[in-house]
Design a protein that fits this description.
The complex is a heterodimer of chains A (about 100) and B (about 625).
Chain A: E1 17-18, E2 27-33, H1 37-45, E3 53-59, E4 66-69, E5 74-77, H2 79-82, E6 85-90
Antiparallel strand pairs in A: 1-6, 2-3, 2-6, 3-4, 4-5
Chain B: E1 2-8, H1 14-22, E2 39-44, E3 55-60, H2 72-82, E4 86-92, H3 96-107, E5 113-118, H4 120-125, E6 128-130, H5 132-139, E7 143-145, H6 154-162, H7 177-191, E8 192-194, H8 201-208, H9 212-260, H10 266-271, H11 288-317, H12 320-326, H13 328-333, H14 341-349, H15 351-357, H16 364-377, H17 381-391, H18 396-420, E9 429-432, H19 440-474, H20 477-484, H21 486-492, H22 499-505, H23 510-516, H24 524-537, H25 541-581, H26 584-601, H27 605-618, H28 623-632
Parallel strand pairs in B: 1-3, 1-4, 4-5, 5-7
Antiparallel strand pairs in B: 2-3, 6-8
Helix pairs in contact in B: 3-7, 9-11, 11-17, 11-19, 14-15, 15-25, 16-18, 16-25, 17-23, 17-24, 18-24, 18-26, 19-23, 22-23, 24-25
The chains are: A alpha+beta (about 100), B alpha/beta (about 625).
Chain lengths: ~100, ~625
């Protein structure tokens, strides 16, 4: 049986988390994207790809969209999408990553 | 004739550049493409130069982030690229990293490319310094800084176009995506320097717009003031400009015509209609030149003008996508995601561009839900103007009844569709445009385009609609169909049989249809029911055509069935509730609160489906542990 669960089980451990769990104002390095080819390409065309550092700007409540900054522009990702982007939090001030 | 295709990421100023390039000569035609429409214009280069042909065809392609098409719009852009003799790749200078991804992909195609480094002024303002000649060297194609809004730099672009050696782009071997990103990193490191600078107040406002508390406060302020401005301007225009014009200039002309036609006869009745006591009542005379012209210019035009003024401002400011972010949760309950708010808002102007904007939505499921919801519960500005003009005089509460009912229909129908239309709605991925202070000149242009579209495209239909009403009455069609639909119109909706004429005209133009309720001397309650049914019942012919094209026969049929059932249920329900059960005020409160509660507590059907899909696809191996941690632990 597959249950609908609240929260995001399965991403805990070894410092990895999804964009939902990342705190607003915190930056993270993208580790992987849990999605199909189309999604990965779509995010990549926006610059969201493994290795890229993104900064979470805000989120609208718990299951609302997450806004992230990629330095010079911002992208809003729906909850279902934000949950598929696994990052590793980075400490300290983050410079633009090119 | 050579073809130039304007390509670039969404929202980099392609269309601004397009309109500057094609200028006054612009021959904007909408291609009835099967996917996303693009715009075509012509660029005439001074004939003094004989090296190249004088006239170019310029196509404004839909924005795309890459050539790996991942949605309908991008497919069209990629197809257009194949037909291009020259590409003008419009690049956002403030977002070089992301934009170069597309640029490098285009350059691989071996088509001559001129790169327009647009938003150059903004880049300077943001402390971004780009070494243009180095960038040119690195890319192997001409790069020209431009400012799309003012057209600065475009003469240089044309100069470079003339000296463009064909083929400038050499067909470089296709690189992998990783190689492209490495290349971009290299290019940026050698050409771009960014100096630190402080946040502007627009950026602070930008952040506040998507934060939970400040975002909703801002949204309330913006929506409320927009509404106030629209009504204030609309009323002002009617009182100060249009009513005086009709009273002092137009009526004497009509009176004279009335005399010249001898006060009777077929031509007189069609053009001027019924005249009572030598005076002309624009609302009930039903003449083409009286009621027809009055609906068009006296009621709808002023409202449309003020509506599009405000909409244009919000569009150019960059606010609308942020409203989508705030409403994403609600929209998910309706089977859509936040960005679907955009076609809806455009639909408040006119359902046709609204329906076309729904092409931005990823799945057919979403487009079906969005188009059905829009054609049922979003009245266009012309219709709203007529409703406000006709019903508003009986008190704002009756406007409240109409619009709260439409809101309730929107939410309830959305929740139902989310439940019963199979599949799920993917989450949104939307780039947030930076706030930009709207530039008055482009605002004026946009407003004029929309108004002239109404004046030249809609006017014939409005006048024709009034003419048709005359014909329907004269031939007895109204009487016959009135009898035929009497059980529905009279029994269910509580309207007089003649209201059937309004329903028929509703297929043609919604504003005329609502106006047809005017001469029937209805009670305010009947007017509210009639106007609401008119909105819900069926989209106008223009919208219906687009619906058909976008959804195909079967889905349009399904959509039409939903429309009919909804109209009957809503009209009947209103008639029943307002007659005996509820006061107007309690009706409005109920119609607003009940759907909100429904949306909050209804299980998000498609959300569950998406969750399930995700677990099966990517969390398959974790299933056991998930069940343990979430369910039993």
């Amino acid at each position: 049986m597959i249950y609908m669960t609240a929260g995001t089980a399965g991403t805990a451990g070894n410092g990895e988390m999804d964009l939902i769990d990342l705190k607003a104002g915190q930056s993270g390095r993208v580790k992987r994207i849990e999605g199909g080819r189309a999604l990965i390409q779509r995010l990549e065309a926006l610059g969201i790809r493994p290795g890229r550092i993104v900064k979470k700007m805000s989120s609208v409540f718990r299951r609302g969209p997450v806004t992230i900054s990629l330095g010079s522009f911002e992208v809003a990702l729906g909850y279902g999408m934000a949950r598929r982007i696994i990052v590793e939090p980075v400490e300290g001030a983050v410079k633009r990553c090119d | 004739m050579k073809r130039i295709v304007l390509m670039g990421n969404p929202n980099v100023g392609k269309s601004a550049i397009f309109s500057h390039l094609t200028g006054a000569r612009v021959n904007v035609s909408n291609y009835p493409g099967t996917t996303v429409e693009f715009t075509r214009g012509f660029l005439r280069v001074p004939a003094a130069d004989t090296r190249t042909e004088g006239l170019y065809e310029v196509l404004d392609a839909p924005g795309t982030y890459s050539l790996n098409a991942t949605c309908k719009a991008e497919e069209v852009a990629v197809d257009l690229l194949e037909t291009a003799d020259v590409v003008f790749n419009v690049v956002d200078a403030t977002n070089l990293e992301r934009n170069l991804y597309l640029t490098l992909q285009i350059l691989e195609r071996g088509i001559p490319v001129v790169i327009l480094l647009n938003l150059w002024d903004e880049a300077i303002h943001k402390g971004i310094d780009i070494d243009v000649s180095k960038l040119e060297q690195a890319l192997g194609a001409p790069v020209v800084p431009t400012i799309g809004l003012t057209g600065k730099g475009l003469s240089d672009v044309i100069e470079r176009l003339m000296t463009l050696s064909l083929p400038a782009g050499n067909r470089t071997p296709k690189r992998s995506r990783d190689e492209i990103w490495t290349e971009i990193g290299r290019i940026l490191a050698s050409t771009q320097t960014i100096s630190h600078r402080h946040h502007t107040w627009l950026e602070i406002l930008q952040e506040a717009s998507v934060k939970p508390v400040s975002g909703f406060i801002l949204a309330a302020v913006i929506l409320y003031s927009s509404l106030r401005v629209v009504t204030f301007l609309g009323e002002g225009l009617v009182d100060k400009v249009f009513d005086p014009f009709f009273a002092r200039v137009y009526t004497p002309l009509i009176i004279r015509l009335h005399g010249a036609l001898g006060g009777q006869g077929l031509a007189h009745d069609i053009l001027i209609g019924r005249v009572r006591n030598g005076g002309i009542d624009y609302e009930s005379s039903l003449g083409v030149l009286t009621t027809g012209v009055y609906i068009d210019f006296g009621v709808v035009l002023p409202y449309l003008l003020s509506f599009y003024l405000v909409l244009g401002f919000l569009e150019d400011l960059g606010y609308l996508p942020r409203l989508g972010v705030l409403l994403d949760r609600l929209m998910h309950r309706l089977g859509l995601h936040g960005y679907a708010i955009l076609p809806m808002i455009l639909g408040f102007g006119c359902n046709v561009p609204g329906a076309l904007a729904a092409r931005n939505l990823e799945s057919k499921r979403e487009r079906f839900i969005a188009l059905t919801l829009m054609s049922i519960s979003i009245p266009c500005a012309a219709q709203q103007g007529m409703i406000v003009g006709l019903v508003g005089r009986h008190g704002a509460i009756y406007l409240g009844i109409i619009f709260s009912t439409l809101f309730a229909v929107f939410v309830v129908l959305g929740v139902l569709q989310d439940r019963f239309v199979s599949g799920y709605t993917p989450s949104m991925i939307v780039e947030m445009p930076p706030y930009r202070w709207p530039y008055w000149r482009s605002q004026g242009k946009k407003l004029w385009m929309r108004m002239s579209h109404f004046i030249f495209q809609a006017t014939p239909y409005i006048l024709g609609g009034v003419l048709l009403v005359n014909v329907l009455y004269a031939t007895g069609v109204v009487a016959i169909t009135g009898h035929l639909f009497s059980p529905l119109v009279k029994g269910v909706f509580g309207l007089p049989e003649e209201a059937v004429s309004a329903l028929i005209i509703g297929f043609l133009r919604k504003d005329v249809a609502v106006a047809m309720l005017g001469p029937l001397s209805l009670t305010p309650k009947q007017l509210s029911v009639g106007a609401t049914v008119m909105a819900v019942f069926f989209p106008c012919a223009a919208t219906f055509t687009v619906l058909f094209r976008e959804l195909g026969f079967v889905y349009t049929l399904k959509s039409a069935c939903i429309m009919f059932v909804t109209a009957v249920a809503v009209g009947g329900g209103m008639n029943l509730l307002l007659d005996n059960v509820l006061t107007p005020v309690s009706y409005v409160v109920l119609a607003i609160l009940a759907p909100i509660l429904l949306a909050m507590f209804a299980p998000g059907a498609s959300e569950c489906r998406e969750e399930r899909q995700w677990r099966v696809e990517y969390k398959g191996q974790d299933q056991g542990s998930i069940t343990v941690t979430s369910g039993r632990n």
